[in-house]
Amino acid sequence: MFTARQAFSQASRRAFSSSARQSSKVTVLGAAGGIGQPLSLLLKLNPRVTKLSLYDIRLAPGVAADIGHINTKSEVIGHEATPSGLAAALKDAEIVVIPAGVPRKPGMTRDDLFNTNASIVRDLAKAAAEHAPDANILIISNPVNSTVPITAEIFKAKGVYNPKRLFGVTTLDVVRASRFISQLKNTDPANENITVVGGHSGATIVPLLSQSGYSLEGEKLANYVYRVQFGGDEVVKAKDGAGSATLSMAMAGARFTESLLKAAQGQKNVIEPTFVDSPLYKDQGVEYFASNVELGPNGVEKIHPVGKITDHEQGLLDACLVDLKKNINKGVDFVKSNP
Ligand SMILES: NC(=O)c1ccc[n+]([C@@H]2O[C@H](COP(=O)([O-])OP(=O)(O)OC[C@H]3O[C@@H](n4cnc5c(N)ncnc54)[C@H](O)[C@@H]3O)[C@@H](O)[C@H]2O)c1
Ligand SMILES: O=C(O)C[C@H](O)C(=O)O
């Protein structure tokens, strides 16, 4: 005979397993690349993902066959590099993560990737707008400050734009900012969560150290800010022509995807920094901005303002907004001239 406690525990097990069974298809476009492969691996290890669809212009079926042997429950499908393969990859996706595109080589800025990556992202955005109009779209491909507006313009043109479901992934900046301060202060980086706002390149990356109660002075502060703003260059230089950050980015992309899934499955107070269609600086002509964003079942739940900052941080923010506006307009203009 069941005791009340046993009955309760069985009911709660059922409730848990039914929410765990909730179907969450995640699609990776660019899945065979330096980021795409480890990101897909991490997503295969995430029990919240029930179906993982991998698409690339090369090798996605091979990557899927490999990852598909891992003994976690999710189904993995590698799609052919054809329009119908892309359509099938996107159909019914809850989350579409896009790391497709070329990475930097030493001496290049992220903006130097624009000519190649703008059209790659535009074309994938067209397919996503057609086959997954309600999905959360996570843009990793650089330059993020421009590829997010490109995606938005495509979704607007197709009449399916939902600003709550488009995200530029800036998580790596926060991961770096947290790691770098822990190295200076001998703290556990897992306990650090430095707010980083603005965009994702050089001067548009603005770490707000003061909000975590830290104050660095003079050269120490300048070096810290530089390292966060140009952390990507450290990796590009060290890889010496073989690409940019892939493994740390895969971790950051998996973290952001996990946060969205948690929020979609009802967890409250899930906050991640991300580059979104934001009201914060629209009065200055800046349509997109990264700040802490509370995530929910509908994507963006609440965009947090930047909050109290020091005069030095205000100076960084002023410089950020100038560059950001140019990067955003470049993306918007690209779609106007190359629809
Ligand atoms: N947001 C960030 O913080 C961040 C961090 C690191 C890298 N990035 C950017 O991510 C992008 C990818 O970097 P990577 O190191 O993985 O590059 P990579 O060259 O190793 O991989 C890119 C993959 O995209 C695929 N691809 C190209 N065109 C495609 C298309 N039309 N459809 C589907 N797949 C396509 C390629 O075949 C390749 O497998 C770069 O633009 C890089 O700058 C962003
Ligand atoms: O630096 C790059 O080009 C890749 C990425 O944006 C990064 O921050 O590592």
From TrEMBL:
Entry's Gene Ontology cellular component terms: mitochondrion
Gene Ontology MF term list: L-malate dehydrogenase (NAD+) activity
Classification via SUPFAM superfamilies: LDH C-terminal domain-like, NAD(P)-binding Rossmann-fold domains
Annotated binding of NAD(+), by residue: G30, A31, A32, G33, G34, I35, G36, D56, N117, I140, S141, N142, M249
Domain Lactate/malate dehydrogenase C-terminal: from-to ranges: 170-335
UniProt keyword terms in alphabetical order: NAD, Oxidoreductase, Tricarboxylic acid cycle
InterPro entries cross-referenced by the UniProt entry: L-lactate/malate_DH, Lactate/malate_DH_C, Lactate/malate_DH_N, Lactate_DH/Glyco_Ohase_4_C, Malate_DH_AS, Malate_DH_type1, NAD(P)-bd_dom_sf
Claim: NAD is one of the keywords in the record: yes
Occurrences of domain Lactate/malate dehydrogenase N-terminal (ranges): 25-168
Assembly, per entry: Homodimer.
Family: Belongs to the LDH/MDH superfamily. MDH type 1 family.
Protein name: Malate dehydrogenase
Origin species: Ophiobolus disseminans
